[in-house]
Every structure is written in C-alpha cells, then in structure tokens.
Amino acid sequence: MAEQFDLSNFEKSMIIREMNYADINAILEMQRLCFPGMEPWKEEQLRSHLGVFPQGQLVAELDGTVIGSCSSLLINFDEYDDRHTWDDVTDGGYITNHNQDGYNMYGIEVMVHPEYRRMQVGQRLYEARKELARELNLKSIIIGGRIPNYHKHADEMSPREYVDSVSRHKIYDPVLTFQLMNGFQLMRINPNYLQDDKASGKYATLMEWNNVDYKPISKRHFKTSLPVRICVVQYLMRAIESFDDLASQVEYFVDVASDAHSDFVVFPEIFTTQLMSFLNEPSPSQAVRKLTEYTPQYIELFTDLAVRYNINIIGGSHFVKEEDDEIYNIAYLFRRDGSIDKQYKIHITPNERKWWGISAGDSVRVFDTDCGKIAIQICYDIEFPELARIATDMGANIIFSPFCTEDRQGYLRVRYCAQARAVENQIYTVISGTVGNLPQTENMDIQYAQSAIFAPSDFEYARDGIVGETNANLEMVLIGDVDLEILRRQRQNGTVKQLKDRRHDVYRVEYKKD
Questions:
Q1: So what's the pLDDT on residue 219?
Q2: Which of 217, 271, 306, 480 has the smallest CB count inside 10 Å?
Q3: 156 is catalytic
Q4: Model's pTM, two decimal places?
Q5: Which residues are registered as beta bridge partners of 466?
Q6: Catalytic hit among 34, 109, 269, 383
Q7: What local confidence, expressed as pLDDT, does residue 1 receive?
Q8: Exactly one of 379, 404, 469, 485 is catalytic; which is it?
Q9: What are the strands of the beta sheet with 466-469, ordered from one edge?
Q10: What is the pLDDT of residue 6?
C-alpha cells in the first residue's frame, strides 16, 4: 500500500551537542536577545571556554539552528569564598581557573532563544549537564542562579523572603522556579554576584544538584599532593660507530630514570645528530638527509623503551623528512602505554635554516598523559612567550624544552626564558641539553648546557624557583619532583596570581590555529 505522506517532510531534528567555534556568532546574538541590558559574552571568552573545557559547553540545535546554550567549568567548590562573585568563579568569564580534576561542575550560564521557549529546551540542557556530571563522576553541579523577578518585589520583601515565597510556589520566578523543578536545592544567597544584573538586585541563589551515582575516587595522595617525578638527561655527545651505540647509551639513561620511579625522562634537542659521527658526510645538509633515514629505528627504539620500562619519554628531538620532502625538527612524546605524539619546532634558528634547511611547524600542541597535560617547546620556541601562554591556556602544567646550544650566551637565553615562562604562567618548565663535542661533524662541534627544572616563584615552591639543576657541561641526570596540586592551589591563592590577574580587557594572545 502506498504511503499517503512522506513523513520525512514533517520531521524535526532537536539535538544537544558540544558547542564549536562556528556557533559563536549565533550565541552572541542569542545572548543579546535573552539578556537585554546585560553585558554579553565577548568572542574571546567563548573561544577560551572551548579551548579550556569543550565538554562543558553545550548547545541545543533545532533543524540546524542554535536555539539554546549552556556553559560550565569544573572546580573544587570548597576552595572558593562563601561570598564569591560570578567574576571570581569564572576568572572574569574566561574560565582559565577550570580544574580538570575538580569535584564540582559549576554552571555559569543557560539561555534559550525567546522564540523557542516552552519547548523544554532548558530542561534538555540541564539533563545533558547532569549526564556529563555522571560521566565524569562529579560530586555535584552548582549554579549561581539569577532571580530576575525580584525587582518587582524588592520594595516589599528581602531576597531571602522572596526566595522562600518562590520555593513555596507563592511567587513565580522564571529562573529559580525552573531550577527547583529540576532538582536543585538552595545553598545560600550571594549579594553582588553579577554587577549588571539589576533585575535580580545583583543577588544570586547558590543552588546544588547532587549526583547520587558519585563514587569518591581521589587521584591525589592524601588529597593534598599530586607529585610527578622527572628525570632530566644531560647527554654527552661523543663519536659512535653505529645506531646500536646510541641505543645502548639511551637505554642506560631510561633504566636509571625507571629505577628512580620517574614518570618522565627527558632527552635533549637533536641529540640524534650523534649518528652523524659515523655517516662520513662532509656536507651538513646532506648529512641531515642521511640522518632522517634512521627515523623508523629511532621511533621503534623509544616506543619499546617507554613500554618496557613503564615510563613516559620526551625523546629529545630528531630531524625527520616528511612526505612533502621537507625536513622538520620534531620532538616526540612516547607514552608508557605505547601511544605516540609529536610537536614540530615552530621557530627555526638562522643556524638551522642556513646549514640544514630545516622547515618550521605551525601548531602548538598540548598532550594528555597519565600525569596531566604537558607541552613540548623545542629550544628556540621557549624564547617566544606567546607559545607558553597558549599552551597554558590549553591546560599544560609542565612545558618540556629539549635544547642544544653551543655557547653560554645561547644557553642562558634558553634558561632565562624558561624561568620567565614558569613565573608568567604559573607552570613548571624543564630544560634538557647536550654537552661534549663531535669534532669531525660539521656544525655540531661544541656544546654547552646546564639542564634544570624550574618552578614559579612563591613560598610553596623550591627556593629561587629552581627544583634542581645539573652541573654545567658534565654528563649526568637530574631527578626532581614537581607537585601539580601545589601548582593548582597557588594559581588560586598564591601571593600573586598571574593567570587570574591578566587584563583581558586590555590585551589578549590569539592562537590563529583555532
């Protein structure tokens, strides 16, 4: 029997999904319609949300049109003052205080396009938030809710009396009533929460939904420490006769790091140029091309060592010829679970360009590991503060900088900049360099290094902001512990708070690869 109607012509598609960069203009326009008279998001704030915590940014879409959205971040709520404001808990709307190991989701906005209200769009967004909280095993969802009808009753009752009347269904409030109906319970009322929310008299109701499926699991030792042990290799460049000689030297250091129960072992920049000592190629550019032929052996060696010794390896860096026939300076991350990632050197020195014809990469990567998020910035790259700021905003807590410098002046540029990046971004930085010499290898004849681990400069960190450093120009290792929990606490409550105190209204660093 023939169908009378093509039902597909009547179907609608309502979905809840993660926000993306293409949604930003629609969200900005929707916010102006939803909250007239209130300052809307800035585009850079929404971009920051997507860079910091993309899972927590959701939209409702009907037939391809964005009709609602909600934004959130993760925190440990007990670290915030009882009288916190919206600016306090969102870092001025940029959520760079997001704590990926936080126990609480904090909702900072929900909105539904005026033309699509009474379609349970808000309820769908709330349910999606609850599902995310269950998926991430969060203790609760907390929101600072507006009470937009309070201005109609402000002359006759206090905020507490108003909230009590709404709770007992004597007064209807479009926000508070909705939140109560969705299982949120009142915690307290905060004054001066949102300065431009005149309809609410600047008050907000702190509300909480408890996740009954929450299973307490702490990744922190005694809930006060999250230590990461780093072994930095200061590698001696000396003539060798085969790849096996290099492999033997590398495995020795990985073994040392593993015996010390290190989480990471870090090798220097282009230390594999040691292979040039037996390639017998006088032309530096041709020697580099011959060196790239060892890339498969290099990757296989480090992958095997990472798994066998149960340690994450920053494999220094290595010259790699890729499909475009260009040669890149690439640092590889070899995780102990056998997975591999890589970071291209972005800024190429005049020396690399002149002698070896090295090409530049163009993306800043931040890598997930079993010890949190890290970044790798090879030698010259650490001298450009924008890269470290971008990596920090993407969640990096440690930046590893393999380097290779031939004199003290070049070394000090790397060292001073790595220390500055640690202070500016409240992160740990690690530098690992080569020493020794390769007398018969053109452009790799002398080396100068003093490897180190640096911390921000404040009371809870190592004196002088130096976790540890090697002796200059000697082959040795440095083993030091950094504490990611201290890092997180100090970002919130340190003597100075460089990340929280940035003037987003005056300047910004824009990453064009977004």
A1: 52
A2: 217
A3: no
A4: 0.71
A5: 454
A6: 269
A7: 47
A8: 379
A9: 367-369, 372-376, 398-402, 428-432, 452-454, 466-469
A10: 56
